[in-house]
Design a protein that fits this description.
By secondary structure, the protein is of the alpha+beta class. The protein has 2 helices and 4 strands, in the order E-H-H-E-E-E.
Length: 87
């Protein structure tokens, strides 16, 4: 397994801002951890991968949703948008 990981793109402040719903943000980050483990298992040597990356995908969770981009050759999952439903 490579050095797969996730991060906010371009940064956490841009993506989640001043969200008051910290419980939802924790759900997003936990799900991102799961998605990274799945990608690492699917793409055993991501840096050598020469196919097309999956592109932007979305996950719907209790309390909101988020969009992420998987870049296999970089072994990274980038969270690009987080939308929490109104409290």
């Amino acid at each position: 397994m490579g050095d797969w990981g996730w991060e906010y793109n371009p940064d956490a402040h841009h993506v989640i801002g001043e969200s008051p719903n910290l419980a939802f943000i924790a759900q997003v980050e936990a799900r991102a951890d799961e998605l990274v483990r799945a990608a690492a298992a699917l793409y055993l040597d991501g840096s050598a991968y020469r196919g097309q990356s999956p592109g932007v995908q979305e996950e719907v969770l209790p309390g909101g949703m988020f969009q992420y981009l998987t870049v296999v050759r970089q072994e990274r999952l980038y969270i690009v948008q987080v939308t929490a439903w109104p409290l």
